[in-house]
Amino acid sequence: MDLASLLLLFLSSLCCSCCFGAAPPNFVLVFADDLGFGDLGCYGHPTSLTPNLDRLAAGGLRFTDFYCTSPVCSPSRAALLTGRYQTRSGIYPGVLYPGSIGGLPLNETTIAEVLKPLGYATAAVGKWHLGFGANGKFLPTKQGFDQYMGIPYSHDMGPCQNLTCFPPDVKCFGLCDVGAVTVPLMYNDVIKQQPVDFLDLENKYSDFATNFITTSAKKNQPFFLYYPSHHTHYPQYAGPGAAGKSLRGPFGDALLEFDNTIGNILTALEKTGVINNTLVFFTSDNGPELMRMSRGGNAGPLKCGKGTTYEGGMREPAIAYWPGTIKPGVTHELASTLDILPTISTLAGAKLPQVMLDGVEMTEILVQQGKSKRETMMFYPTDPSERFGLFALRLGKYKAHYYTRGASHSSTTPDKDCEIFAVLKAHDPPLLFDLELDPSENYPLSLEGKPDLQALLERMKRVKQQFEASMVFGQSQISKGIDRNLEPCCNPQCTPKPSCCRC
Ligand SMILES: *[C@@H]1O[C@H](CO)[C@@H](O)[C@H](O)[C@H]1NC(C)=O
Ligand SMILES: *[C@@H]1O[C@H](CO)[C@@H](O)[C@H](O)[C@H]1NC(C)=O
Ligand SMILES: *[C@@H]1O[C@H](CO)[C@@H](O)[C@H](O)[C@H]1NC(C)=O
Prior knowledge:
This protein is an alpha/beta fold and 503 residues long. It is built from 11 helices and 16 strands. The protein has helices at 3-19, 51-59, 73-82, 86-89, 111-115, 198-218, 249-271, 311-314, 340-348, 363-368, 451-470, and strands spanning 26-32, 61-67, 121-125, 147-150, 164-166, 170-171, 185-187, 190-193, 223-228, 278-284, 315-321, 329-336, 376-379, 392-395, 398-404, 425-434. The longest helix is centred in the middle third of the chain and has 23 residues, at 249-271. Residues 25-350 form the Sulfatase N-terminal domain. It comes from Pleuronectes platessa. Keywords: Calcium, Glycoprotein, Hydrolase, Metal-binding, Signal.
């Protein structure tokens, strides 16, 4: 090294440690799949084994009133990464498929794109589910992530009956999507393995995540790691490190394997000395898939689950962990996945995207145990439309349901309101619940002789009208349909498809 570069090195080390304040914080965002409000030990599940998530909760801030924006996967992810309701970006109705023509529009700004101009290293590992598209044009590397490793959609979106989900050779439960190509494992835009080996998948993810942390920390580069896990979505799987080790069967083993990765991530943050300068945020994409019965998740005290706009469909476990900055505790403040982009942006000192955002920043909740800037939460169904608008709205502690409907994903519990046969029902006046007194939405409030509640409903109606007037629906990406030729195949010219796509 010559003298000039030595001097430069010396100056740059000076500038980062003294003159321009503390180094910008790192962010680790962990997003579980189909994990319900009642599934973690720290949220009261009696037999789940989640020592590392419980450790995050004990040393961090645990939310009781945290919401995702959709009771299904792709829209919930779109809102998480953009800070905007999925209706704006067009990620509706339902979810994207391997051959979907659409995807998260490239002109949407993701958290990774917010951080990139500040010199952050960015990586995504796990389940993307925001589109694949022609030549992989919707993959994470096109949305601000330097690197990606994972399955670009749900791991049941390909035939699975002959695949091994638990050692030594326990086949996956159920058929999964028999018509599609087997699920691929991608590194950036290249298919590395098809079908994926479920027994080794979590190991690969964990190694990728910890290597990324270690490499970035060694370079002194701030980083953003986005880890949307496949756990605990159907079909559950786990390698030898977790299989058979929980009291809760396949679901518990999958959850334990996920929890082990959280532990590895925390260890990497500790070993590299960046743990005190890193915000770790954990939450889940939507409620539990109750139709899988004891192999599905658990909504705890909440009503129904995945696919519905009841609390079980959209209220999620959430934990913010940042030793020395976030005081351990529990918060009942209202917050949402929408708020993560503005919060990260504030903490990093980044510019907000110049678009209509639905998120509000929550640094006061995190670092001062302060009040939420969020007063409302909007509940869109899996197939939002301008005609029906919101199905429900939460204002403060009250929630009004304008429409209710069950869902196949939530069938099989004794509650008849959750199942697919509970068809769309309009409520006028809306069904009104006090979620502080009745988080299970069991007892609609009677309006008779209650002018205060009638006035509240009037206010909620105005809030709803105002919000709906401000909502510009983006062109539906999912309605663009499916082209089977777009399904990722490691051997694109092979026949007969899809069974020849194996590498
Ligand atoms: C992205 O482009 C589409 C099509 O031109 C447009 O309708 C939409 O408003 C744009 N979105 C953003 C966030 O700029
Ligand atoms: C699974 O294995 C059975 C029996 O060998 C075979 O008939 C079937 O075609 C296989 N299915 C897939 C999707 O590979
Ligand atoms: C983080 O801060 C705690 C005190 O809050 C301290 O005990 C610990 O050594 C710090 N860890 C690192 C890696 O700096």
